[in-house]
Specification:
The protein is an alpha/beta fold. The protein is built from nine helices and eight strands. The model has no long low-confidence stretch (mean pLDDT about 95).
Length: about 260
């Protein structure tokens, strides 16, 4: 799956720290490099994996770190979680805040706690002038409401693995966010995400893998990995009627602007 020389890809959201990639991690980096994936935004999800994210970013120039408390793990946070997050942000001045967000596929009893944690992290991102990486599932209307109440985002960021309606894309862009598409958009039946691709402004488009999950339709391997962002680029190119090279160039520029 080698690409032609000179094409650079930026995987705007992945989880290289995931234990499922541990045994093959250096090969994952090698395959990414061989396919032109020169940068990867590696997102922490809880206090338990932030140190692994730090180590990967310290050991690999291609890894851009992000530290955040994912809504799935909000209930298990320590009393010191916010202080611990601030310490990570101070230690790594280029680190982003993420993965944060809302997930209404979880039990409704968790919603209030999710929002408390999400809004706290938006405030920290504004205070420390960092971009955000936002997870949203079945909560796009509420996400718009909370972003409006919190004044949007201070330094931009992405709504990752976008699965919301095309009609809300302009709202998110108005808050200073970009829209990132993962392997899920490669599935022909994912009509909503595919419609949303065309609604994204050229300077707000990003691509990602969310590896090791959400592997593209064309991928036969058991696990997803950053090299497969090339397959996402190919699908986005087909949907937009442009070349894969143009998608690579556009998303490379956009992601670098966010994660600089």
């Amino acid at each position: 799956m080698d690409v032609s020389a000179g094409i650079s890809f930026f995987d705007a959201h992945c989880h290289l720290q995931d234990d499922r990639l541990r045994a093959d991690r250096e090969a994952v980096f090698s395959r990414a490099a061989n396919t032109g994936v020169k940068k990867m935004s590696c997102c922490g999800t809880s206090e338990k994996d932030w140190e692994q994210v730090r180590e990967l970013a310290s050991g690999h120039e291609s890894v851009h770190p992000s530290f955040g408390l994912h809504p799935w793990y909000a209930a298990g946070r320590s009393e010191q979680w916010a202080d611990a997050l601030v310490s990570r942000l101070k230690e790594m001045p280029l680190a982003c805040v993420g993965e944060i967000g809302l997930d209404h596929a979880l039990d409704e009893s968790t919603f209030a706690d999710q929002e408390l944690v999400f809004c706290k992290q938006l405030a920290l991102a504004a205070e420390y002038k960092r971009p955000v990486t936002i997870h949203c599932r079945r909560a796009f209307g509420r996400l718009v409401e909370l972003l409006r109440l919190n004044g949007g985002v201070f330094r931009g960021g992405i709504v990752h693995s976008y699965s919301g309606p095309a009609e809300l894309v302009r709202d998110f862009e108005g808050f200073g966010l970009s829209i990132s598409f993962s392997g899920s958009v490669t599935f022909p039946k994912n009509k909503r995400a595919r419609r949303a691709v065309a609604a994204v402004s050229p300077d707000r488009l990003c691509i990602e893998t969310d590896s090791p999950d959400l592997k593209p339709y064309q991928c036969a391997a058991e696990l997803n990995e950053p090299a497969n962002v090339v397959l996402v680029a190919q699908t986005v190119a087909e949907l937009l009627g442009i070349s894969k090279e143009e998608v690579a160039a556009r998303t490379w520029q956009n992601a670098n602007r966010i994660f600089k």
